[in-house]
Amino acid sequence: MNASALSSSKNTRTWILLAIATASAAATVWIIRKRRRHETAEECRITKKAKNLDFHGDTNQHPGVAGARRTIGLPTHMERELYKESRRKRMIPKLAMKKPMYDNIRMCDPDGILLSSISLKKARWYVKKNLASWISDDCIQLNFQPKKGLTRHDQNQQEHRKIYNQNFKINQCVVCGADERYMRHYVVPYVYRSQFPSAYKTHLPHDVVLLCPECHVTVEKASQRRMRNLEQALRQQLSVDPKLTSQPFFVDPRLHKVQSSAFALLRWKHTLPESRVAEYESLLREWWDLSADESLTVDHLERAGAVDDKIVNVQYVPGSDLVIDSLGKDDPERIATFVRGWRRHFQATHRPRFLPTGWNIDSPVVSDVRPSTDLASGV
Predict the structure, then answer these.
(1) Strands (E), the chain
(2) What is the C-alpha separation between 114 and 102, in angstroms, rounded?
(3) d(C-alpha 285, C-alpha 305), whole Å
(4) What's the CA gap between 205 and 186, in Å, rounded?
(5) How far is 161 from 378, CA to CA, in rounded Å?
(6) Which residues cross the membrane (predicted)?
(7) Are 59 and 68 in contact (CB under 8 A)?
(8) Which of 172, 270, 255 is nearest to 212 (CA)?
(9) How far apart are CA 197 and CA 220, in angstroms?
(10) Taking a C-beta distance cutoff of 8 angstroms, is the pair 377, 116 a contact?
């Protein structure tokens, strides 16, 4: 065999070995990737189970309750949060509005001039009272010339109200635009708004907006934080210790210990150290005044667990009362400033992109005084 043939044979073997090595490396990489994909899928499956609280068996019990076995060994506080989130999602169909908030029925005066966009319920009321007639499926015409109310607002505010009242309103979340399972949200928290004089609530849908379930959670948390700050600032101005007025009740330490000991024995006795079980049983026997011959029964434990450990605090002042009292019922300017402050907070904090046309921080906060048969704007 000549030199050229030997060289050719060596080159061939080299290429064959190189091809085998390349194929082996490719196969190894493929196996590793497949294994990683499988591990990732398994991790996702476990995470999904944890989020959905996939307990063994068909149970809606809290993971801390006896008999509710956990699939994933997560920390208790994480399981509690997952449980709360799961419960919130189950409640969404019940809490969401069952029908649209805006029906967008046009209401015109006898000359055919558009006055306002109202709800179907309000339109039917006008027709039933013979105050209006249907001229189309989505429009009624008044049978009388509405009077102009006692104007309390400047021209700019009146223009904001007119634009808002007349424009078509879309049933969607004002923050993200979602158009399913929306809920009402009061820009001025309902606990405050409900205590306003009627002139600040009647025919004023401006500060009632729609939010989807996810945005509703975020917005409510921000509102609660602002409410706490407002109320805490007012409590500091009281002559008594703020701690004495902020709690509706106090917890009796002894009764709380009795209650918690009974719960522990009922639910987790089999997992508690013997010394702890003996401590709890001794406490409960003393509380029930049992003799050495008497047994501590399940009935004793259940009744001890049902003990009310709360004591009513007679000095408690609800935060909403503090806020409303600070405004004064006869001070329109302070109420107007308060309402616009909440509007400004809502807009600055959440940047709503889908507010109804005409929604404005400076829109009137009080309705005009009008006869019952006059123009009624709103939903």
Answers:
(1) 105-108, 114-118, 132-136, 139-142, 183-186, 208-211, 249-251, 310-312
(2) 17
(3) 14
(4) 9
(5) 11
(6) 12-32
(7) yes
(8) 172
(9) 24
(10) yes
Closest CA to 283 of 311, 306, 263, 310: 263
Nearest to 318 by CA among 251, 227, 250: 227
Token couple for 153: 């607002």
Torsion of CA 137, 168, 121, 145, to 10 degrees: -80
Strands 114-118 and 132-136: unpaired
CA distance linking residue 229 with residue 193, whole number of Å: 18
Compute CA 175 distance to the chain's CA centroid, rounded to the nearest angstrom: 14
Q: Identify which of 121, 118, 145, 123 has the alpha carbon closest to the alpha carbon of residue 134.
A: 123
| Angle, alpha carbons 201-214-46 (nearest 5°) | 155
Question: Treating both helix axes as pointing N-terminal to C-terminal, what angle do 319-327 and 213-235 enclose, rounded to 10 degrees?
Answer: 70
For the full predicted model, state whether its pTM sits above 0.85.
Answer: no
Q: What is the token pair recorded at 189?
A: 């928290």
Look at phi and psi of residue 193 and say left if phi exceeds 0, alpha if psi is from -120 to 50, else beta. alpha
What is the residue type of 143? N
Cα 335–chain centre separation: 26
For the segment 280-326, what is each residue's pLDDT rounded down to a tens digit? Answer: 999 999 999 998 888 999 999 999 999 998 988 888 888 888 899 88
Q: Which residues have a Cβ under 8 Å from the Cβ of 137 and sit 6 or more positions away?
A: none
Burial pattern 340-362, b for ≥16 Cβ within 10 A else e, equals: bebbebbbeebebebebebbbee
Rama region for 374: left / alpha / beta (φ>0; ψ in -120 to 50; rest) = beta
